[in-house]
Structures are given as C-alpha cells and as structure tokens.
UniProtKB/TrEMBL annotation:
This is Dragline silk spidroin 1. Coiled coil: none annotated. Pfam families: Spidroin_MaSp. Residues 1-20 are annotated as: Disordered.
Length: 99
C-alpha cells in the first residue's frame, strides 16, 4: 500500500461517517463478548461493506486500508477504556485464533 493511500485513509478517519462506523464497531465487538472468535471478522466484513457502499469510487485496496484503520481505532478505544487485571501470559498464543 502506497503512502498516499494510507495518508488518504487516515484523513478519512476524521469524517463523521468514519466516526459512526468506529462507534458501531466498538459496540459490536464489546457486545459480542471476549470469547466470540467470529466477532472481529464479522466486524471487519461489516465495515468493509459499509465503506464500499458509501464510497463507490474507492478501490478494493483503499476500502480495505480504510476498514482496517477503523477497526484498529475501535480496538484501541476498547483497550483504552478497559480495566485490565492480571494478564495470563501462558494463554497469549490463543489470541492468534481470534485474529
């Protein structure tokens, strides 16, 4: 992905539409619970679909970059709003199954 595509996607993050999609992604991910391994892929799929339908001029690559930035923004918001207790380092490898 070129730097121009990444820069354009980052600038689109400030749009009201992107903000709404990020809020929706946060809601979907949190309400799905931590053990729903399909939640992340479903959220990415939903965001891709919404971006594609509202931005018909974007290439598939641009849509994917935009969607991933929005989903990462949602995940950062969730982590920033979470209260994390003791971390079980032994089971960290299981996180790869979710992703």
């Amino acid at each position: 992905v070129g730097s121009a595509a990444a820069s354009a996607a980052a600038s689109r993050l400030s749009s009201p539409e992107a903000s709404s999609r990020v809020s929706s992604a946060v809601s979907n991910l949190v309400s799905s619970g931590p053990t729903n391994s399909a939640a992340l892929s479903n959220t990415i799929s939903n965001v891709v679909s919404q971006i594609s339908s509202s931005n018909p001029g974007l290439s598939g690559c641009d849509v994917l970059v935009q969607a991933l930035l929005e989903v990462v923004s949602a995940l950062i918001h969730i982590l920033g709003s979470s209260s994390i207790g003791q971390v079980n380092y032994g089971s960290a490898g299981q996180a790869t199954q979710i992703v």
